[in-house]
Write a structure and sequence with these properties.
Blueprint (H helix, E strand, L loop, with lengths): L7 H29 L6 H27 L12 E4 H11 L3 H6 L2 E5 L6 E4 L1 H17 L6 E9 L2 E7 L34 H11 L3 E7 L3 E9 L5
Parallel strand pairs: 2-4
Antiparallel strand pairs: 1-3, 4-5, 5-7, 6-7
Helix pairs in contact: 1-2, 5-6
Length: 236
């Protein structure tokens, strides 16, 4: 007998791929129209083209978050730990991180390393996703022409990584809800970016599956610093 049942994760992944394909088509058409009308479009029309581009980027991000929510990181993690040079891992992540918000806001990403190499065991793909959520948030709420700094230091058998932005900060009344699923603390970014309220929840979930911890400090109008502690051990 053929088992033709499909899991919820597979269905969501298929829907996600279909939606991403349609979003890519809309963006492609928008790029063509923007280029064609570049010299003729007035200010309002240019704003419409920019709004379409931003909406597509927001939808793409929301779809990725929803798919990740249904992945194994939440209820049944299928982590694939491997020995990793943490300093090099973070440096590569910062060097290769790419988002439209970075270029639009002219945000600089900078990694501050230490002389001591830190070797750690974790699932590189999962931890990369966690840091991508944190970096995405930092950039989303950054001011134009500002900087996001990633640092790593070591305390005994703990690697401490921080991601500090120079953004708008977080009001005190919202901070208790930041790491909740579909948090009511979700806000628009400094460029009007939408948020599904899932990024920090997913990052926390992944970090805690590695027996780590995540928290933040923030001051309105000055910025936010997200800290992640990961234990340095021989195995998960």
């Amino acid at each position: 007998m053929i088992n033709d049942s499909v899991s919820g994760e597979e269905v969501l992944a298929r829907i996600g791929r279909d939606l991403q394909g349609k979003i890519a088509r809309i963006r492609s058409c928008n790029h063509m129209l923007t280029a064609f009308f570049e010299s003729m479009a007035d200010e309002d029309q240019q704003k419409c083209f920019a709004a379409i581009e931003q909406d597509c980027a927001d939808l793409k991000s929301i779809i990725h978050n929803l798919i990740d929510l249904d992945r194994c990181y939440e209820e049944n993690p299928d982590l694939k730990p491997s020995p990793t040079h943490l300093n090099r891992f973070l440096g590569n992540l910062v060097d290769n991180y790419n988002s439209e918000a970075i270029s639009q806001k002219r945000v600089k990403l900078h990694f501050e390393d230490i002389d001591e190499p830190i070797h750690i065991i974790f699932d590189p793909q999962a931890i990369e996703r966690a840091f991508s959520y944190v970096l995405s948030n930092a950039i989303k709420f950054s001011q134009p022409d500002s900087e996001v700094v990633v640092k790593v230091i070591r305390y005994a058998n703990v690697a401490n990584i921080s991601v500090a932005d120079q953004g708008i900060g977080i009001p005190k009344k919202l901070r208790p809800y930041l790491f909740s699923k579909f948090t009511k603390a979700a806000r628009r970014g400094t460029n009007g970016e939408e948020s599904a309220g899932l990024g920090l929840y997913l990052a926390k979930n992944i970090v805690e599956k590695h027996q780590g911890s995540i928290w933040l400090e923030s001051e309105e109008g000055t910025g936010t610093n997200v800290f992640i502690n990961l234990p340095i051990r021989d195995r998960l």
